[in-house]
Model the fold of this input.
Amino acid sequence: MSETTKKESFFTRLLTDNPVFGLYLGICSTLAITTNINNAIGMGVAVTVVLTLSNILVSAVRDITPDDIHIPVYIVIIATLVTIVGMVMQAYTPALYTALGAFIDLIVVNCIILGRAEAFASMHPIGASAKDGLSMGLSYTLSLLAMSFIRQLLGTGIISLSNPFTNEEIFALRLIPKGFEVPMFTSQVGAFLTFACLAAAIAAYKNYQSAKAKEAK
Amino acid sequence: MQLFTMFLSAILINNIVLSKFLGMCPFMGVSTRLDNAVGMGLAVIFVIFCSSILSWCLYYWLLVPLHLEYMELITFILLIAAFVQFVEMFIKKNSPPLYDQLGIYLPLITTNCAVLYVAQDNITQGYNFIETMVNSIAVPAGFMLMLCIFACIRERLQGNDVPKAFEGNPIAFIIAAIMAVAFTSLSGLV
Done:
């Protein structure tokens, strides 16, 4: 595969096979924690780490797991990893840990992780599973970033980023003048609206692609 | 009185779907028809009520005496998975007609984040046994209420001319946004 088609296929996969907006997996956390970019990055990294490690572990034990109890085995693996990630975050990034709250623990029931363990890692070798976990985690993180960027920009008018370890602000940029921001976007209503529009945009892109493919035939 | 306030606020004000965004997957998945929504709602109420009470007992009677509080997550998720499996087998054996109605929803409930959330919330809020019981029935009742309202709206929506890109789930999220507006106005109630 040449470099350009590889890049293109990553881009199309990112859009059309997007776990959040394309397949509607892991919606709960996407809606809840995307009020600002910091939370989105923190959550994205946490999920990517758990997803990659769980894919590796599931793939490693795939031959010795009895078929009847494979779901409980996967759940124990995932829950252990989430507990570890939660403890690490509590120790090193306490502000982020407080901001994300219950949603760290709820990574366990994030459908993306169990879904990938079941659909991919349980029948592929370790290397491929790790790669799959990493790419799925990245596209999840990018979806969170897109959501949080729109919501933070429209809701507060400021784009800011702070260091999760020290809680110091790295930069803050006001793009919308004071008084013109729409606070609704940081509330629940904004979450649903932003999600709907992004999902519709992805669907429109898919429709456009399939129409083009039909024409080419 | 305090318990009643708690009950009401869990259903209407802090509604688990609209204000905490939990249980979105089944919310979007099975809300296309009213009878499916009722079936799923009942199954969720039953599972959350029983599994939350079991988790509460397990936490205070086993994990706290043994100083194993950090095992909370693993214990709860295993308990929920095992409980759902058990209920599924029990219903299948004893009441096949009920199984045909609820059976397809039960495996879905394990990955419903609402179940794990309620079990953990009871612990983090420090509820006693009675409060746990009230909370564990009010939260899924709010879920069922939302699911039913939502299913009714989506049934009406089926014949309508929606822009092509918004067909299916995106328009459902728009509806959820409008419902969230309606429910925010209830926040002054309690």
Summary: Chain B has one domain: 8-188. The radius of gyration of chain B is 18 Å. The mean pLDDT of chain B is 85. DSSP finds nine helices and no strands in chain B.
